[in-house]
Specification:
Layout (H helix, E strand, L loop, with lengths): L16 H4 L3 H4 L1 H22 L12 H9 L3 H14 L2 H15 L15 H38 L4 E6 L2 E7 H20 L4 E3 L8 H6 L5 H11 L3 E3 L9 H29 L3 E3 L18 H23 L10 H6 L3 H19 L1 E3 L1 H9 L6 H10 L5 H9 L7 H10 L4 H8 L12
Parallel strand pairs: 3-4
Antiparallel strand pairs: 1-2, 5-6
Helix pairs in contact: 3-4, 3-6, 3-7, 5-6, 7-8, 7-14, 8-11, 11-12, 12-14, 16-17
Length: 448
């Protein structure tokens, strides 16, 4: 069958295609080819600027045309690389031969042996992939997380004065503010996003085993280390100095682990909102035409939060594998990293799907003040902490134990029982009045 959204094996290219197609220009096979071509071309031009004797006569008016090999790269050109690969059975060599063909078209054949000069495949891969990775994180991932954080903050500010019963261990606990609980997630995201913003994208660029053997044997007078450092820096990356044939991927693992932590925060948020919906603290805006159950017409399910949870699970499982596998390679290299690297777009696609689902779900939330207030009214026992704390302050004997005896009976504690307890205390009347003013609605503390 012809590949389309209905025949794709992976849902990121099928069912969720509309949410993930923006990743094509970073992680598809076409994107990999384009970034490889870009690195090869930029490297060639850097050699021209280096002033090697054999490149001194390179016509400067052709530089623009050479750059167009990258800027004009399209699906037809990518297909040509695939055709060459049928013969070479090596995609990087196919890329090199493709660029040489383009040089022949430009009548630059005499210079084409300086394409891929002194390099090994991984100099290209371990520069092209970090480059596409960096572009994706900066262009798509970071802004998406930032946008979601902004949406969470909007809800936090909207509900900042709404008292709500907290639950620790699934049991009623000291009251809080609904807005503050959303700010918890905003602050957590903010901390991890700062780490994501500060990550360094590393490249390996040093020849067959990382020592510039071929470069130095051809041009021993050139400072190739300085040249490579400058070249990689010009691409917005940092060059690793001590490598095998491949980069060691420790920096990439750090990025995966950072995104995994961000995803865990979203997972926590998804589950909490799901529970709030099940407690009836939130209702969801009804979308005309949507069906919650094929059998039960009344249902409005929290599917957006469930979708986010499922996609985060898949993403994080893959991130864990990537960060554990990639930094491990036998001696100066084995090929197990190659096929794994082709999958780094997959967990990112699931992450983007999860973010989109969360944003959609959060936009549908409607606060149910009646249910939230009813829960507070039904749990007057939570003011026990406040009462015993004030009694401790004045030196009242065994206040914790007295409140424990009152509240841990198998009976409902309402306002009347709390007032009766306060009235029974042998304390001054003005202090009793102070204690009577404490309610589940105003015993919410302060965070800012």
């Amino acid at each position: 069958m012809k590949l389309n959204e209905l025949t794709a094996i992976s849902p990121v290219d099928g069912r969720y295609r509309k949410k993930t197609e923006q990743l094509d220009i970073y992680f598809s096979e076409f994107a990999l080819f384009k970034y490889r071509v870009r690195v090869e071309i930029e490297y060639f031009l850097a050699l021209v600027n280096l002033g090697l004797k054999e490149l001194k006569n390179f016509p400067k008016d052709k530089i623009k045309d050479v750059k167009k090999i990258t800027s004009g790269f399209n699906l037809k050109k990518a297909q040509r690389i695939k055709e060459i690969e049928k013969t070479t059975n090596h995609d990087i060599k196919a890329t090199e031969y493709f660029i040489k063909e383009e040089f022949d078209k430009l009548k630059l054949g005499e210079y084409k042996e300086f394409i891929h000069f002194g390099l090994t495949s991984q100099d290209i891969n371990n520069t092209a992939i970090p480059l596409s990775h960096k572009d994706f994180v900066n262009d798509i991932l970071y802004p998406q997380f930032l946008s979601l954080k902004g949406q969470i903050l909007e809800l936090a500010n909207k509900w900042k004065n709404m008292p709500m019963l907290a639950h620790t261990h699934g049991q009623p606990a000291s009251p809080t503010k609904l807005g503050k609980e959303f700010k918890v997630f905003a602050e957590r995201l903010d901390n991890q996003l700062q780490l994501l913003k500060d990550v360094v994208f590393y490249a390996k660029f040093g020849g067959a085993i990382g020592n510039f053997n071929a470069h130095y044997v051809a041009y021993p007078e050139v400072d190739w280390i300085k040249f490579a450092d400058g070249f990689i820096y010009s691409l917005g990356l940092k060059r690793l100095h001590y490598t095998t044939q491949i980069e060691h991927y420790d920096g990439m693992a750090h990025i995966f682990d950072t995104v995994k932590r961000l995803n865990n925060i979203l997972l926590d948020l998804s589950r909490d909102v799901w529970i709030y919906i099940s407690m009836n603290y939130f209702k969801q805006k009804i979308i005309k035409g949507e069906v919650g159950s094929s059998a039960m017409p009344h249902k409005v399910n929290p599917i957006d939060f469930e979708n986010a949870e499922g996609n985060i699970g898949v993403a994080n499982a893959l991130f864990e594998h990537l960060s554990a596998k990639l930094p491990v390679s036998r001696l100066q290299r084995d090929l197990s990293d190659s096929t794994v690297l082709r999958n780094i777009g997959v967990p990112y696609a699931h992450t983007i799907i999860a973010i989109a689902s969360l944003k959609k779900g959060l936009a549908k939330l409607k606060i149910n003040e009646e249910a939230i207030k009813r829960d507070l009214m039904d749990n007057w026992s939570v003011v026990a902490e406040a009462i015993q704390t004030i009694l401790r302050k004045i030196g009242y004997p065994k206040p914790y134990e007295a409140l424990k005896e009152l509240t841990r009976k198998n009976e409902k504690i309402d306002r009347e029982k709390i007032i009766a307890f306060i009235d029974s205390l042998k304390i001054k009347n003005d202090l009793k009045e102070e204690l009577r003013s404490i309610t589940p609605f105003n015993y919410t503390g302060k965070t800012e």
